[in-house]
Amino acid sequence: MSAHPDHLYPVFDRMLPRASKEEMLGQAGAVIWMYGLSGSGKSTLAHRLERELHAAGHLVKVLDGDNVRTGLNRNLGFSDEDRLENIRRVAEVAKLFAECGVVVIASFITPNNTLRGLAREVIGDDDLLEVYVKASYETCAARDPKGLYAKVKAGEVKQFTGKDSSFEEPDRPDLIIDTEAHDEEACLAILLEAAQGKILLPR
């Protein structure tokens, strides 16, 4: 079956415009896409950022592996094809939220530039803040907040990013947060400033 052009779906013309929703919420919809190795600190920062923005009166939704792979993407594994589809679906969902004026914080390893480019293509440059949460494999293994690196060392986890599956340094992140060079509070302050700049409505 061939794809139908948009003009065959007049419902789009009857939908409330994005600007009306953003005006009601008092914020611009945006996607803050945070990526890095497991243990780099992206989930910690994502949830702290959510709380800070919520306290400031913003409507925020966090998307991460824990809440996506148990529902929307529970049928996907960790092959290259499944990782691609995982990111594509998440990006499309994030885009829908942003178009409703919601601030989305997406926290995914997103290990290579192909996947990051896919997310950017779906979401669009205007709505995306791409944040590389940087920490070395050795540092992440020492932190090991979920015990994953210990399982990798014991041979219990396969296709693990940074070991069996490579992690590619990013081409063009909008922001780099080095969690080895800065403590958690400093990292949060950098992230919060960037996020607030992204979600301000134009005057």
Explain briefly what this protein structure is.
This protein is of the alpha/beta class and 203 residues long. Helix content is 44%, strand content 13%. α5 (80-99) runs parallel beside α6.
Q: In words, what does this structure look like?
A:
- Helices cover 44% and strands 13% of the residues.
- It is globular and about 55 Å long.
- The chain has a 5-stranded parallel sheet with strand order 2-3-1-4-5, sandwiched between helices.
- The protein has helices at residues 11-14, 18-25, 42-55, 65-68, 80-99, 113-123, 137-143, 148-153, 184-199, and strands at residues 30-35, 60-64, 103-107, 128-134, 175-178.
- It has 203 residues and is α/β, with parallel strands linked by helices.
- Helix 3 packs across helix 9.
- It has one domain (17-197): P-loop containing nucleotide triphosphate hydrolases (Rossmann fold, 3-Layer(aba) Sandwich).
- It has 9 helices and 5 strands; from the N terminus they run H-H-E-H-E-H-H-E-H-E-H-H-E-H.
